[in-house]
Predict the 3D structure of the following.
Amino acid sequence: MTDVNKNTMEMEEDTQKGRFLTFSLGKESYGIEIKYVIEIIGLQAITEIPELPEYVKGIINLRGKIIPVMDVRLRFKKEPREYNDRTCVIVIDIKDVSIGLIIDSVSEVLTIPEEDIVEPPKMNKGFNNRYIKKIGKVGNDVKLLLDCEKLLSEDELEDLSEVL
Amino acid sequence: MKKVLIIDDAAFMRMSIKMMLEKNGFEVVGEAEDGIEGVKKYKKLKPDIVTMDITMPTMTGLEALINIKEFDPQAKIVMVSAMGQENMVREAIMQGANTFIVKPFKEEHIVEILNKILAI
Amino acid sequence: MVKVSGRNTNEPMLDMFIFETSQLIEQLEQSILSSEKSSCYTPTAINEIFRIMHTIKGSSAMMIFNNISTLAHHIEDLFYFLREEKPNNIDCSTLSDLVLEGVDFIKIEMEKIKNGDEADGEVSQLIERIKGYLSILKRTNISTGPVKDPEKVDTKGQRYYISQDKAKTSIYANAFKAVIYFEEGCEMENIRAYTIIHNLKDITEQIFYMPEDIIDNDDSVEIIRREGFKVYIKTDYSYEEMHKFFMQAIFLKDLELIQLENVDELKQFSTVKEAVVQKNPIKVPSLHEPDKRKKEASDKEINSTSMHQSIISVSVPKLDKLMDLVGEMVIAEAMVIQNPDLKGLELDNFQKAARQLNKITSDIQDMVMSIRMVPLSTTFHKMHRIVRDMCKKLDKEVQLEIIGEETEVDKNIIEHISDPLMHLVRNAIDHGIESTEDREMRGKSPSGRITLEAKNAGSDVLIILKDDGKGLSREKILMKAREQGLLYRSEDDMSDKEVLNLILIPGFSTKDGISEFSGRGVGMDVVTRNIEAVGGSVSVDSILNNGTTITLKIPLTLAIIDGMNIRVGNSCYTLPTISIKESFRPKEGDIITDPDGNEMIMVRGQCYSILRLHEVYKIKNSSTSIFNGIIIMVEHDDKTLCIFADELLGQQQVVVKALPKYIQNFKKIKGLAGCTLLGDGSISLILDITGLINN
């Protein structure tokens, strides 16, 4: 029985491999590994929480579960933009932390073969780069593949540097 | 489905045995946490087979075995023992226990034992 | 709670293992401590400890926690000896030390297991010492007779379920030789062989087997494993029948069965041993007349057994989940009953049904709350061990008295008060209680006394720790505070109570030398912080030379509070109703502003500072004129604050939810205790009064 579980889990992993949910933020198109994505919801009422970085917009009630939402635009230090009816929240789950990512609009789910995924160019101090794990090529388009863990975890480092 | 009664004072052991057996098509009809309760439940539930811990409070597995065998000489009983209990196990066999298993044991072993005893 | 990669089907088993073993360990500890107190191990206690170790041995072996299992095995051996030989010269204190060390080891391993780490503790040294202790005991107690084998049972005169009338025929038609191999790892091969012989006795009396001494010689196990178990029999059964018989053997790996044409092979056994079947009937312990020895030992257990049966254990995460669901149900109910679609409709039957639903939901809520309540007894009884260890190390004498251990508080809170309480008890013994000589000099009883009491006080529980030690000296506290630069006010202005409370401030520690047990640089301030973290408070009372009393006030539960919802701009906040003293609209002349711009308000001749929530939390669209809003006066621990908000929205019971971890990771947001869901599905932030006041 244990083996069966393991097999189906492996199969799931397999079917999820190389699959990305793509979304747009201004002109750029980003991709996020499908295994992190729980669901996509429309924008809903956000309760603001004081004393947090600007990009953490607050918390929302997702069917009784309270999850934080982050404005990815602000996280990437881009210009803020009014939310409209295309604005979406992608709920992701990383290491048992659920968080909603506010983005301009969701595009589609794509399979990007391994050979079309390349390392991002090395830049000495381009901070824009640090949330990008890889770059995927789809036809003539380029998808910036997000490093979700960094999206969440680098905050602590940032906080530290603010203190110092 | 074959009906099993589990007599053991350790909740963990009852749960372990129960999970192992239920996965393999047995029906655990009852659990008892000491000998007295075990004998009572045997009489009430009439299981096809019993797994019986040896060390228990208020009435040991050996005493419960004797009581059950007196009530039903055909009762099928598997003793659950641990290393160091050789003499108790031998005594249990003398008293009519069908066989025994030694902790720690694997799922396939307890299943095999029960099936074999039930086939007799 | 527990994270182990790759465990799925085993999860409930591991949870049960942790649950049951932890319980047994606690029971064991209590048993040892009370035995030590009465400086003797009663047969009941010895038997109990033996049984607990036996159970732990079995369970941990099943879970492949081998070091725990091995340790339990050796302690079991030790108590087996004590139980069977009843040596009268045992060194109680050494025995307790050894077993408690074992208890501690298992506790540490259990902690590792809970955290999903490998239980890899080193135990061989402890085992060697247990073995050493046992062998000394054995050596000094040989006079009491030969040491029996473990688990030996008196076999005399017991009943055998074997057909008894075989003796009449001795001339059998066939002879067989069988060599039996058992599966590897089936254990106790000698007893398996014995089982076969035992079953053969139904078929024939002429049985010979190799090795012969399957019961008494431990080496026979090895021989059977290596060479198989050889059986020679004469019987009327056919080859097929014998084959079928042997195939029924449990854990049979291989069988060689040969029909012997020539019975010579049988004759090589010089001494023909015929299996002797005992015929004397025996007395079977009856269900209705348990013998006296058993009865004494078990009377109490029967009671607890029958109680046990109606109790099941539930994992705390499940309860938390249930609590969440009930909270959601309350919200969903409000959304249905107050649905805007119903506006203006005459719905008599609906309203009736709605009232019924409302009653049931609130009953469920109460019930779930009560499920989460657990008595403080376990936490309190842990202190016995602390007292014992401390007294031993510091060479003091202390009696611990426990009152009101049945008082219940929420499971989550219990987890938070255990450590502070331990710290307080250590402090009391280390710093409070004097040495025996000192006490006698002062005319006190040589043995100190610590009382640990719990009682209900409204929606709070008070935990009072009282010692009859030397008490706290105002002068010493002031001196220390001065040295540490903790004094900000004139000493003469401070009341005794204020001085005593100085010991709760971070950086204060009255003892210069840091002892092993308390005052490791951290002190009472840690206790205060932990207690405040669950919304409680600490206060100190002391009379010099008479003793110190420390009172912890903790809320019954964290999960549901009576809350007052208030509006600030577009945001909703919730205040715990319990801390609200009053609310009012301020009048012009009441407001005072000091040169720094701090606002204050005069109420009945007293001056209180005003906290504008919209300023603190930078909320837009709220009324800024103090005369358009409302002042809510809140109080915590004799401190008062006036909170300014736009309006009161109403009072309701709210389910407290923690803020998401991600948010908490940024920093502890001042003045926020959590959040809750309102009837319309929106979120309200719960204000933490203590945080706001101390801000």
About this structure: The longest helix of chain A spans residues 148-163. Residues 15 and 54 of chain A are 37 Å apart (CA to CA). Chain A touches chain C at residues 1-2, 5-6, 45, 47-53, 56, 59-61, 63-64, 66-68, 97-99, 152, 155-156, 159 (CB under 8 Å). The domain at 17-163 of chain A is CATH 2.40.50.180 (OB fold (Dihydrolipoamide Acetyltransferase, E2P)).
